[in-house]
UniProtKB/TrEMBL annotation:
PANTHER family: 1,2-PHENYLACETYL-COA EPOXIDASE, SUBUNIT A (PTHR30458:SF2), PHENYLACETIC ACID DEGRADATION PROTEIN PAA (PTHR30458). GO terms for molecular function: phenylacetyl-CoA 1,2-epoxidase activity. Its EC number is 1.14.13.149. This is 1,2-phenylacetyl-CoA epoxidase subunit A. Keywords: Oxidoreductase. InterPro entries: Aromatic_CoA_ox/epox (IPR052703), Ferritin-like (IPR012347), Ferritin-like_SF (IPR009078), PaaA (IPR011881), PaaA_PaaC (IPR007814).
Length: 312
């Protein structure tokens, strides 16, 4: 097929809601966009283990520790599915990791905030995993097959994360006044960074229109942010704690919550590497990667040994 026919076939598949698969022809920019998005997503899963790893040794009970361990392990699994999905686009995992470790690649800025108290484990599960679900459920219908399929399992696991976080919040809010104050403090610190997770406003998001056309994205950043806020406000009411936004109020006309303006200067500062924990996170990732060098070497040596044996 010539290029025009290939482009037509690609468009036909998009229009028919058929998946684009690794061996199919695709425009270079579609491939590049997916590599950027999927690798950033994979990095976010892996770096996302760090803030919570901080609390694994200090979980208040065996039950909480087991749930937290399971959750952090799930995030490692999400990273692995996503690196694999990304590799189907013709990029090497080493290259992706190199980009992360040198600070060239981005990951979700939310993970550059510190986890100061146990209540942060609740707030992260409730808000951060909750926002991730809002973002990722539509990605199960992404036009690129391997990404869409990876998202199905990821989303099921994210919903367990959200519930375990909310349950921590519920327990604290039904506890002593000190525990409820901890929950409120965690909400105060995580609310704004969580709603920044949906990315810049649509007007300042240059890739959105093209990604929607390619059916990589199904909703814009602002649409998803609004959905998240609408879903989360009643949950805060049940907890009996207050979202730290004086402008937040139900709008009877739009049937949505209106909310205050987001501090985009803070968002961009964190994205550009100047958040409270950017340096710490990158250092932890690099250290873990360096410490794991012997495991990778041993795995390669074992594969080589097996290959020689089979050849003989
Ligand atoms: Fe995840
Ligand atoms: Fe999660």
């Amino acid at each position: 097929m010539n290029t025009i026919d290939l482009e037509k076939e690609f468009q036909r598949k998009l229009d028919a809601e058929e998946k684009i698969e690794p061996k199919d022809w695709m425009p270079d920019d579609y491939r590049k966009t997916l590599i950027r998005q999927i690798s950033q997503h994979a990095h976010s899963e892996i770096v996302g283990m760090l803030p919570e790893g901080n609390w694994l040794t200090r979980a208040p009970s065996l039950r909480r520790k087991v749930a937290a361990l399971a959750k952090v392990q799930d995030e490692a699994g999400h990273g692995l599915y996503l690196y694999s999905a990304c590799e189907t686009l013709g990029v090497e995992r080493d290259e992706l990791l190199e980009q992360l470790h040198t600070g060239k690649a981005k990951y979700s800025s939310i993970f550059n905030y510190p986890t100061l108290t146990w209540a942060d484990m609740g707030a992260i599960g409730w808000l951060v995993d909750g926002a991730a679900i809002m973002n990722q459920v539509p990605l199960c219908r992404c036009s690129y097959g391997p990404y869409a399929r990876a998202m199905v399992r990821v989303c099921k696991e994210e919903s367990f994360h959200q519930r375990q976080g909310y349950e921590i919040m519920l327990t604290l809010c039904n506890g002593t006044p000190e525990q409820k104050a901890m929950a409120q403090d965690a909400l105060n610190r995580w609310w704004w960074p969580s709603i920044m997770m949906f990315g810049p406003n649509d007007a300042d998001s240059p890739h959105t229109a093209q990604s929607m056309q390619w059916k990589i994205k199904r909703f814009t950043n602002d649409e998803l942010r609004q959905r998240f806020i609408d879903a989360t406000v009643p949950q805060a009411d049940i907890l009996g704690i207050k979202i730290p936004d004086p402008d937040l109020k139900w709008n009877e006309e739009t049937k949505h919550y209106d909310f205050g303006s987001i501090d985009w200067d803070e968002f961009w500062a964190v994205v550009k590497g100047n958040g409270p924990c950017n340096k710490e996170r990158l250092a932890a990732r690099n250290k873990a990667h360096d410490n794991g060098a012997w495991v990778r070497e041993a795995a390669l040596a074992y594969t080589e040994k097996k290959r020689k044996k089979t050849a003989a």
